[in-house]
Amino acid sequence: MEEIEATILAKGAPNLTSDGRKVICSIAVSETHGLVRFYPLHVTEHKSIKIWTKAVFRCSRGKKDTRRESWRVDDYEITGAVESPQDKRDVLESCILHSGTVEPVAYQNEQRASIAIVKPHGLIGAELQPRHELKQFNESEDEDGFAMVQANFPYKPYVTWYPVQRDPQTKDPLRMQLVGQEVYEGMRKFSSTPFRVFENLRIGDVDYEHWMILGNINNRRNTWVVAHLHRQKKVQQADMLSSLWTTDGRREGWPYLMQEEGNARDAGPQMQFSFITDGTK
Is residue 240 predicted with pLDDT exceeding 80? Predict the structure, then answer.
């Protein structure tokens, strides 16, 4: 058993397990453990755990999920929450993956890592893909019958985005499924106008910036999804207030085991210039 004090950054929409339980995975950041995954959170039992909740989790390693960031929750105690937009911004900015000139997902796959936080380069696109097979929703199937799982929804939401490090020759953006609880709850609430969830996420709004909490899938580890899409209105650097979020005492590479000095786009082939001098004037 281990105690991990952490702040929740993402909560996925419920999924149905093979034994009929409706469970949620979450992603959090810890000063001691970096980015971690807590599972399985129960729809009703753990409803007090929300995004930006701070808590001490008593957890252990699971047998079915061997990803190094994954922890199975046995108990927890809420200790507070991150409240101010500036503190939230500072947390997210401090967790952005620096992968040098390598695209962030490819970089994490090389490291056998399963979580990354990135900022897209430029605008984000979005789409709803009709679900090929729809699992019928039955409110009386168990004590959590009121909670729809992802397979109960007629659409899968996706975002398309470019990383900073994209190859200039590649025109197609990355495409990833949105699995955040917030998004699926929005589709439930706006069932007749599901595209409104993208308005709420401020996709297409040039006055907002976004941070993407990415995670891979346990049994398909090269497949990555967006566990939560954070957004805030852009602010001028000079207007930013000082924050209590500090970097003192953190290990090198935090919150990852390894990352680069920064993010840089590959400049690609450069034009060559020839200079001829004859030594005369």
Answer: no
Angstrom distance (rounded) from CA 64 to CA 197: 33
**96 pLDDT more than 60:** yes
Alpha-carbon span 36 to 27, nearest angstrom: 6
Calpha distance 191→198 (Å, rounded): 13
Of 66, 73, 7, whose CA–CA distance to 213 is shortest?
7
Q: How far is Cα of residue 257 from the mean position of the Cα atoms in its chain?
A: 17
pTM for the full predicted model: 0.87
What residue ranges in the chain does DSSP mark as E strands? Answer: 2-11, 15-16, 22-30, 34-42, 53-60, 70-81, 115-118, 125-130, 155-161, 174-178, 208-217, 220-233
- The DSSP output letter for 169 is T
Identify the CA nearest to 57 among candidates 8, 5, 11, 7.
Answer: 5
At 137 the pLDDT is 62
The C-alpha R_g of the chain, in whole angstroms, comes to 21
Residue 106: helix, strand or coil by DSSP? helix
Residue 41: name the closest of 24, 57, 54 by CA: 24
Q: Beta strands 125-130 and 155-161: pairing type?
A: antiparallel
How many angstroms separate the CA atoms of 160 and 172, rounded? 9
Q: Which residues, including other chains, have CB under 8 Å from residue 58's CB and lie 6 or more apart?
A: 1, 2, 3, 73, 74, 75, 76
159-212 pLDDT, tens digit per residue, is 999 998 876 666 789 999 999 999 999 999 999 999 999 999 999 999 999 999
Token pair 């001028």: residue: 236
pLDDT at 45: 83
Domain ranges of the chain: 2-234
